[in-house]
Amino acid sequence: MQETFTQLIEQCKDALKxxxxxxxxxxxEIKFLGRKGELASLMKQLATLSDEEKKIAGKVANETxxxxxxxxxxxxxxxxxxxxxxxxxREWVDVTAPGVFPNEGHLHPISQAIQEITDVFxxxxxxxxxxxxxxxxxYVFESLNMPPDHPARxxxxxxxxxxxxxxxxxxxxxxLVLTPHxxxxxxxxMEKGKLPIRxxxxxxxYRRQSDPSHxxxxxxxxxxxxxxxxxxxxxxxxxxxxxxxxFGPDRQIRLRPHHFRFTEPSFEVDISCGACxxxxxxxxxxxxxxxxxxxxxxxxxxxKAGGLDPEKVSxxxxxxxxxxxxxxxxxxxxxxxxxxxxxxxxFIKQF
Length: 351
Ligand code: DAH
What we know:
alpha+beta; BirA Bifunctional Protein, domain 2; 2 domains; elongated; binds 3,4-dihydroxyphenylalanine
């Protein structure tokens, strides 16, 4: 009997020698220690022995079991060590190798400009509002002192929303239009009934136009300030502050008389040319100045349309194109404004 047990230990030793992984080890464990394994069947035979023999053989059987268990535990440790080693090999990193940089994106130049413009005006207390991008004729034209059929409307080359079956594009406040400027924010803001107003509305705008300096979809920012005692001096101060913050401290602005239906007096705002320093005789500018956009003192009829009393309050407004403003900052980098919307990464990556 003793010999049979010794043989069993030897057999197990041999079997373990061939083991290379966990699955093989498990198979050996089941074969020798399992419920129907080699050791269990030897134990069964013990029942046939006499009491005296049983005592001795039982002791040997237990020692054999312990020995086999120890051998298997050792083999398990060995396999675990080997697994750890191959994992470390697999995960080995050369910390001195040059890294692989992820392709990092950034905001579109127009989004960057919008953020910058918003920040500049926020510094002097302008609150960001968002007037609708599709609005009623009343807010876009009529309340801004442009009655139906007024020729001034032609300047805006507006897209009107078409009526379709079951879908009306006309209401109490006229037809629905894709806003051709951001000035619709003016009367909408006055209607909120809270003074003073110091707002900036930056939004998409649409006009039927496409050439190197125009896209059918573009962006404008509209400023509006209304309170008691607001004058042209305030307007000039704000525009000058904006020009110096956005373009640089040595830039100047000038107001040139102009005509808009919704402001009186009205101005075109020019900024001194950054390329020639305002001297003129330069490829970029006309006589030292670049045209930025429109501005003026809010017309009494517009104040009235917004429910305000022109005898008590006054205000100024300005509305400029974001694309145009960006082009003026970047100079010759953008010689055709339409490239901003071509999704050409070679261009976008320069910002
Ligand atoms: N809305 C005008 C345009 O798109 C620009 C403009 C001119 C806005 C004068 C104003 C303003 O607020 O006061 O051409």
